[in-house]
Amino acid sequence: MTGGPRSGRTTVVNALLGAPAVPDGRLPCTDPTVLVRWGDRPGSHMYRSPDDRPDWFSLEQLVGWAAASAAPFMAFADVLYPSELLREVALVDGLADDPGPADRPHLRVHVIDATVGAAPDAGAEPALLVLTKLDLVDADERDACRTAVLAPWGDDVPHVVVDAPRTLRALAKRSGRAYVASGGAALLHAVRRLAQGRRAV
């Protein structure tokens, strides 16, 4: 999962997981490396250096530290969460290259704030673009905004539009209609297709 600052990348990760499992704030890492994978006990291993023995922290501690920007310095965070999606795929929040097993396919999902846009960069071509914050654009300008944001990326890159905060609220309220309307179902479907080795949309 890649994207610019404040693009909504972490909120999109949480929308995929179905809960606010990854801290939405700034963790003081040398690189913004947060690996999210399946675990039956929610929490995180935090590494102070690449060859360090990790410390275990609860997700509540991570969330508090991220909100206050007060976490101990770390080089890497390995978040464990019992989401069924994570049985199929591991997510890396913030990097184009995956620190996971070499035999696992690496696919880039790039998050773009539609109110800002983003030109293609030198990283690997995304397998999926996720447009966020399009709901903040006036309703009569959304189609033109979406077209303008997608234009630099070409016609070959699949995309979905998601209101990730609304997705999380819909899941908390168990509202299937709001979940679909927020783009959450389309996002999950696209990522699952990528995990199965098929085109996202």
UniProtKB/TrEMBL annotation:
It comes from the Bacteria. InterPro entries: P-loop_NTPase. This is GTPase. The lineage of its organism: Bacteria, Bacillati, Actinomycetota, Actinomycetes, Pseudonocardiales.
